[in-house]
Amino acid sequence: MGTQKWMTATILCKTGAELVNATDPELVKFMGQIYYGLFGGGKMRQCGLGGRYSRFTIFPHLAKTLNTALHVVIILFLCVAFCFALISLGFCILNIIRVPYQAFRGPAGIALWNLLAGGFAVLAVTSFMAAVELHNLTEKIANFQETLFQFIILEQQYEHSFWLSVASATVHALNLLLVAISTIHFPMLKTKTEEANVTAEDIMY
């Protein structure tokens, strides 16, 4: 959650490219990179005079530029999901050590905590995607404190921290599936015993 590798993007200094009427081969001189996470990131801007690297933090630098409420909600969802994941892990260990004597400490409890942890992880991932796709999060960060130049996003991609959150939600869903399977009572297969054929000769002996 605290890493700066949630999102990376290639940015183009649109103003600089238009000033010199740059063609496709020359656009490379105006392309930079940006990466960021939930708390900060960095930007390499190129506007024809060489690259210039800068760092930024979400709080307090970008608090007024971004949708702060949505950003805080994403962090809260991840924190709650992490807490419920720890509780689920604790109950799993408890079930391994000893047989539970109350329902919420058994399969039902494990299912509940996994459902809550996975649900909040899904909400966090969905909220982050909404911030990126609907609220133009990357573009707002790229143009932060830029008065002379305008930057546009050429391409962007989610990085490993984002996919770890997706994997976390997937693991909780798999845990729910395993718990559900463990509660199914499958019919026992009974082997049919062969009846011994007793003849008159066997009785005589």
Automatic annotation (TrEMBL):
| Entry membrane topology | Multi-pass membrane protein
User: Membrane-spanning regions, if any?
Assistant: 69-97, 109-132, 162-184
- Per the UniProt entry, what are the Gene Ontology biological process annotations, in alphabetical order? sensory perception of sound
- Which Gene Ontology cellular component annotation is one that this UniProt entry carries? membrane
Keyword Membrane attached: yes
- Show the Pfam families listed in the entry: Clarin-2
Q: Where in the cell is it found?
A: Membrane
Keywords attached to this Swiss-Prot or TrEMBL record, sorted alphabetically, are: Membrane, Transmembrane, Transmembrane helix
Q: Which domain of life is it from?
A: Eukaryota
User: Which family does the entry's similarity section mention?
Assistant: Belongs to the clarin family.
Question: How is this protein named in the record?
Answer: Clarin 2
Instruction: Give the classification, highest ranks.
Output: Eukaryota, Metazoa, Chordata, Craniata, Vertebrata
